[in-house]
Amino acid sequence: MLNLSASEENYIKTIFHLQEEEKNVTTNGLAAVLNTRPASITDMMKKLKQKKLVHYQPYRGFRLTTGGNRYALSIIRRHRLWEFFLFEKLKFSWDEVHSVAEELEHVSSKKLIDKLDEFLDFPRFDPHGDPIPDNQGKILKTRQIPLSEMPLNRTAVVCNVGDQSASILELMDHNKIGIGTRVEVKKRFDFDHSLEIKIRQQVPFIISESLAKKIFVKHGA
Amino acid sequence: MLNLSASEENYIKTIFHLQEEEKNVTTNGLAAVLNTRPASITDMMKKLKQKKLVHYQPYRGFRLTTGGNRYALSIIRRHRLWEFFLFEKLKFSWDEVHSVAEELEHVSSKKLIDKLDEFLDFPRFDPHGDPIPDNQGKILKTRQIPLSEMPLNRTAVVCNVGDQSASILELMDHNKIGIGTRVEVKKRFDFDHSLEIKIRQQVPFIISESLAKKIFVKHGA
DNA sequence: TTTTTAATTTAGATTTGCCTAAATATATTT
DNA sequence: AAATATATTTAGGCAAATCTAAATTAAAAA
Ligand SMILES: [Mn+2]
Ligand SMILES: [Mn+2]
Ligand SMILES: [Mn+2]
Ligand SMILES: [Mn+2]
């Protein structure tokens, strides 16, 4: 497989993520995320088009080719495996892993990544609850689900709150739940559908169904 | 601490190693090791002199400053810790670790390296038997010693053979001992000073004192 | 001590990845 | 359908890290 520079890899990966939201990625959109100027994006798109990694027509935006997509998934695989390693083995906190993985992901040895995967026992989700592509580039597509629908005893990660009111934030704050919090549902009570949940090393506690419906989590399949 | 590019780091590290042999490092000498042209070395030396990492007078060769030396040791620390990780945790073979570590060493997070060190339980030697600097940059200086002088039950790595005759090579070949072989002395017999040694997962076997005196190993302190 | 050889530096390019400012194409309003 | 605004591309430059070919300096040989 062809070998891209760290810069090219960052472009490819970012296009991949932007594509999940919009069909077509724009010059300004990509420039904003990558913290560069639109002119730089145009330069790079010409190069990536040459390498057949993006479809690109001037003024018409761009998207990854099949090859570009495959490459993007391999970068995401590296990124998330390293995040898992940092979190699980080196005891980094969930919000510290990203920036270091951002560098490690560019170390290109295929063998390194496959051995790392094996060493970590083939994890399926990174510390943010995002799925890790396997060595074939296959990835589970996870969508956000409300905590109320999580199966029991599986780690999930809070990724969204479907309500921005002060009252819900106060309650979440009180319970020390926020974006990124890892949570496990231990029990579901039939009477009022309240949930017993556990976060971090704390003793489990109970939250109402109405709160659980507003807390969106990733992963759990 | 200032942050150097991967390229600058490779220069600094290589100068450090060359310095161990010769007081003064030369333009051509460094160019040969780094696989670049002499003109590139001169360019880089000007830059590193500016950054006060090398002492350099045109036509007079160069050597690291105190700061350059400290920086070199931090790169060597990263390199050898990664080598140890690859060998010990990911089960790479001893001759595969170097090239991957050559890339990993440039990931610059201090926290990453110190946590990795801790995770690996503060190893003192890399898979080639070279000492790993601690987080203060302190490094044990190991010299080569003949296998006959190794203490019992400590892993050593064959790094040199003090005789190039066909007969010694035949014997080493027969015993499957070569540069890089990891060996442990299990017992020393008083009668003829022969040694019982163990290599890899094999059953221990005996070699003569005269052979053991010609096989030089690193590490064991 | 010259002369010759070898090592080193300088001059001038090239590539990658980025930038600013100006031009141009597309989209949105009137 | 113009006119205006916004998005995008082009033109021209710059810094890092490399190169080749041409000086230049130092070392070795005569
Ligand atoms: Mn990155
Ligand atoms: Mn992640
Ligand atoms: Mn390196
Ligand atoms: Mn080593």
Salient structural properties:
homodimer; 221 residues; alpha+beta; SH3 type barrels; 6-stranded antiparallel sheet; two-stranded antiparallel sheet; 42% helix; 15% strand; binds manganese (II) ion; DNA-binding
Topology readout:
The structure is a homodimer of 221-residue chains.
Chain A: H1 6-21, H2 27-34, H3 38-50, E1 54-56, E2 62-64, H4 66-88, H5 97-104, H6 110-119, E3 145-146, E4 155-161, H7 166-174, E5 182-188, E6 195-199, E7 205-207, H8 209-214, E8 215-218
Antiparallel strand pairs in A: 1-2, 3-8, 4-5, 4-8, 5-6, 6-7
The site of one manganese (II) ion (MN) has 4 residues of chain A, from loops.
The first copy, chain A, binds a DNA duplex (30 and 30 nucleotides) through residues 5, 7, 26-28, 36-44, 47, 58-59.
Question: Your description of this structure?
Answer:
The structure is a homodimer of 221-residue chains. Chain A is an alpha+beta fold. Among the domains of chain A are: 6-64, Orthogonal Bundle (Arc Repressor Mutant, subunit A); 145-219, SH3 type barrels. Chain A is built from 8 helices and 8 strands, in the order αααββαααββαβββαβ. Chain A has helices at 6-21, 27-34, 38-50, 66-88, 97-104, 110-119, 166-174, 209-214; strands at 54-56, 62-64, 145-146, 155-161, 182-188, 195-199, 205-207, 215-218. Chain A has a 6-stranded antiparallel β-sheet. Chain A has a two-stranded antiparallel ribbon with strand order 1-2. In chain A, a hairpin with a 5-residue loop joins strand 6 (195-199) and strand 7 (205-207). In chain A, helix 1 crosses helix 2, helix 1 (6-21) packs across helix 4 (66-88) and helix 2 (27-34) crosses helix 3 (38-50). Chain A is globular and about 60 Å long. The two termini of chain A are 31 Å apart. The model of chain A has no long low-confidence stretch (mean pLDDT 94). The A-B interface holds A 86, 89-92, 96, 99-100, 103-104, 107-109, 111-112, 115-116, 118-119 and B 86, 89-92, 96, 99-100, 103-104, 107-109, 111-112, 115-116, 118-119. The complex binds manganese (II) ion (MN) (4 copies). The first copy, chain A, binds a DNA duplex (30 and 30 nucleotides) through helix 3.
